[in-house]
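Project outcomes to date are best conveyed with an example. Our students and postdoctoral researchers have been running inverse folding experiments weekly, and each run begins with a structure described purely in tokens. The record below, which covers 369 residues, was selected by the lab manager from last quarter's runs and is presented without edits.
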């Protein structure tokens, strides 16, 4: 007799309730243009239950659709209404591919083989998410596009934003049989460099525009976070999460830990916000993930909306997960290595040498319960 796991049952229920509904895809026309002499379009991949819409400008995930417990669909990621909004922002991180270095490098400098590199400062004195000419401001070449898979490629020149090495990256978005959006990266270089790739989608499992995410339940398999200063730069110390507001090893409602403040981005601009003991203003932290096998794609986090019934599992093969809730109306769960790793040899290495291939897979898998 075949044994059914909880995940298999959730997938089966999701497929049954979604079979009667049509996915309300975004109109592709507002994302159709020419940039840098290249065709830009909105590509749709789907298995009939889950669908993603992605533009080859910046690799932005513009739409992501999965059914709720009633079989109703909503867009679960924040987006801009047309392609012309995307190039306007240095850090308009609403769903792009991030590279060649996601997260922060302190003082926008690092040393490699005895040589110091000064890279672009775009976040105060620091560099954030690859600088001003990274993945999110690149028109990717489409290698393959069909109903279930989008494969794109880009080349970042040696010296671009100050980084060494010509970095060639292949980025594959695909829809898995078990209702996941898989994001797979492969990268090579012709000179020793540092590489840390990710995606910066913001998720709201009630549907974007349907309130905040403070009622979402979050689980993250991590024993530590990387301690940082007030600018988000790691000190080098790993801080245990046990007994703190950062312990999500069991499901916790985000609003039980994060204070509620007025304002769309939840920072409380102009407000004097008292932070009670055991709570945080918001999360913008790298969680040091607990993997059984660091080389395998494993489940590392789960987000659940009791209101919609949607569940999103996060699977990856990387050591870190940046959890960002500053937006309050949505949450980013960024699969990556640790921030500022080039300046911390004790952290998992981000070095990539010629002849090596960087691999990274992250899957956002959907179900209902």
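After processing, the design step wrote out the following sequence:
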């Amino acid at each position: 007799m075949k044994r059914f796991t909880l995940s298999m049952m959730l997938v089966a229920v999701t497929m049954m309730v979604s079979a009667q509904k049509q996915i309300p895809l975004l109109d592709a026309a507002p994302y159709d243009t020419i940039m840098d002499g290249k065709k830009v379009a909105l590509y749709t991949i789907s298995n009939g239950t889950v669908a993603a819409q992605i533009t080859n400008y910046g690799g932005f995930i513009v739409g992501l659709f999965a059914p709720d417990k009633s079989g109703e669909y909503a867009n679960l990621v924040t987006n801009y209404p047309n392609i012309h909004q995307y190039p306007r922002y240095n850090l308009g991180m609403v769903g792009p591919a991030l590279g060649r270095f996601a997260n922060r490098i302190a003082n926008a400098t690092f040393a490699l083989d005895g040589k110091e590199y000064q890279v672009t400062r775009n976040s105060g004195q620091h560099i954030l998410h690859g600088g001003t000419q990274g993945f999110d401001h690149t028109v990717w070449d489409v290698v393959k596009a069909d109903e279930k898979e989008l494969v794109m490629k880009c080349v970042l020149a040696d010296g671009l934003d100050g980084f060494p090495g010509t970095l060639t990256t292949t980025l594959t978005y695909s829809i898995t049989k078990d209702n996941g959006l898989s994001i797979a990266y492969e990268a090579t270089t012709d000179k020793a460099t540092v590489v840390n790739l990710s995606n910066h989608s913001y998720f709201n499992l009630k549907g974007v525009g349907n309130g905040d995410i403070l009622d979402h339940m979050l689980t993250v398999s991590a024993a530590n976070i990387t301690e940082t200063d007030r600018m988000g730069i790691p000190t080098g110390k790993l801080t245990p999460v046990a007994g703190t507001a950062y312990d999500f090893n069991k499901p916790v409602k985000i609003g039980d830990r994060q204070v509620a403040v007025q304002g769309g981005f939840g920072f409380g601009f102009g407000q004097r916000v008292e932070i009670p003991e055991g709570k945080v203003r918001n999360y913008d932290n790298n969680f040091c993930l607990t993997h059984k096998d660091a080389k395998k794609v494993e489940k590392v986090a789960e987000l659940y909306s009791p209101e919609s019934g949607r569940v999103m599992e996060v699977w990856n093969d990387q050591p870190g997960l940046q959890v960002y809730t500053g937006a309050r109306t949505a949450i980013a769960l960024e699969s990556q290595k640790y921030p500022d790793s080039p300046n911390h040899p004790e952290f998992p290495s981000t070095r990539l040498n010629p002849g090596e291939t960087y691999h990274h897979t992250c899957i956002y898998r959907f179900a209902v319960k």
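The helical segments are 6-18. The chain has one domain: 6-368. The training component of this project remains on track.
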